[in-house]
Each structure stands twice: as C-alpha cells, then as structure tokens.
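Supplementary Methods S3. Complex input for the S-adenosylmethionine-bound model.
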Amino acid sequence: MAANAISGALRQLFGIRAPAGKYTNLTYTATAIGREEYKNQLGGGRETWDARGRFQLDLLRARGLLPTSTLLDIGCGPLRAGVQFIRYLDAGNYFGFDYNVSFITAAERAVTEHGLSTKQPSLVALSDFEMSGIRRTFDYAIAFSVLNHCSPSQRRLFFSNIGQCLAPGAKLFISHARWLKEADLERAGLVISERFGVHDLDLSEYGWQPPEQRLVCPLYELERRSG
Ligand SMILES: C[S@@+](CC[C@H](N)C(=O)[O-])C[C@H]1O[C@@H](n2cnc3c(N)ncnc32)[C@H](O)[C@@H]1O
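Predicted complex, serialized as structure tokens:
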C-alpha cells in the first residue's frame, strides 16, 4: 500500500502515466497471432471462445439488433464476439476498437480468415476512450468484460466520451458491472432500461460455470435519452 502510494506520487511527479489496465502492454508476434495464443488470455479460453461470442450476438438480437443496425464494439479484442456480429450485420455496420494493438492485428486477421472482408468492418486501435475520431453514432454498443478491467479514472473517461457515439435512443450493454452507479450514467445521458441478473440469462448454455456467472452480472442495458 505504502509502496503503491510512493510509486503513484513518483509517476505523477515525472508525468509518467500508469498502464490503463490489464491488457495494455500485452503483445503478440505474428506467429503467436497465427497460433491464436491470445485466446488463452480471455476468460474461458479456447474451449468456450465461440459460445461466449455467440452469447453476445444472441443477447443483442433478443434486444432488437437487426442486420440493418449499426454496432460499436467497445474493447472488441480479437473479435471473439466481433466475428459473429460482423457476419450477422450488413456491410459497414460494425465498428470495433481496442487499446491493445496486437488484439486489433489479430482481429484484422480473423476477418480475413473468416471470409468477412466484404462486410467492411472498421477496426481501430484507440486509447483512453478517445472516441472523437470515430465521427459516427451507433444504434447499439457493447462493452463486454471491458470496463471491469479499467481503473475508475478510465471509466470516468469512458462515460465522458461515449455519449458522442450513441444515436438518440441507442442501447448500450455493459457486463461485469457490479461497480456501476447511476451517477456514472448522467454524464453520458444514459438511463438504465434493463438490469439482467444471473437468473435472467442462460449463461451455462454459453460456457460459463456458476461461480463465473456471478461475475458477468449484473449486465445492464442502458438507453441514450433522446433530445
Ligand atoms: C476480457 S477482454 C473482452 C474482449 C471482448 N469484448 C470479448 O468479449 O471478447 C477485455 C478487452 O477490453 C480491452 N480493453 C480494456 N480496457 C480498455 C480500454 N481502456 N480501451 C480499449 N480497450 C480496452 C482489452 O484490450 C481486451 O481486448
């Protein structure tokens, strides 16, 4: 604790920023990406990779996502769910970003390997939730197992900036959200439209064992106020 406080003070003194989170400095060579080693970094690993990705698509479809909808995948990683979203959505309607450059490289490779290039997904490496360059608004957005890996200051940046990417009435899904407080939402013009607990979602069907299911929830559906 004392050591942390000292290193925090030194970082501040010399203007050195702390890593934004668990995945900031994780890098993979092209060979490692080819072997899909990144799959071991996400909860559930290779074994549940497709099922946990499919869960996100099934959830959003159940909440109204259509092929014509536009989707922002926040912290998309190497497209565990992204591949499924891109396949389902009309061309040009998927935008994924992540602060980990290796994950974006892996994501680009996954698009090619799954024969999804014609869907023209946008994949961007982006830090500190600096979303002003996106210059689009979306009907749907999802941050699945992302903000739980972020510091409180990264979350503040997220809620300060996400509003600019959401169309009026857009739905934003946030999982692993035990930390979420209604005060966080005001900054982004968001209200809670649904709160999913463990008993509302069939997580065991998608590869989550009971102890881990409790981490996924609460999962919130938030709505961007119109006007
Ligand atoms: C557990 S993975 C989940 C990836 C993806 N959402 C999924 O469900 O497969 C967490 C992801 O969030 C990304 N991430 C964490 N903090 C981030 C931040 N501040 N900005 C952008 N991406 C972030 C990580 O790089 C990683 O890809």
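Residues 20-21, 23, 42, 75-77, 80-81, 98-100, 103, 129, 144-146, 149-150, 154 surround S-adenosylmethionine (CB under 6 Å). Residues 78 and 107 are 4 Å apart (CA to CA).
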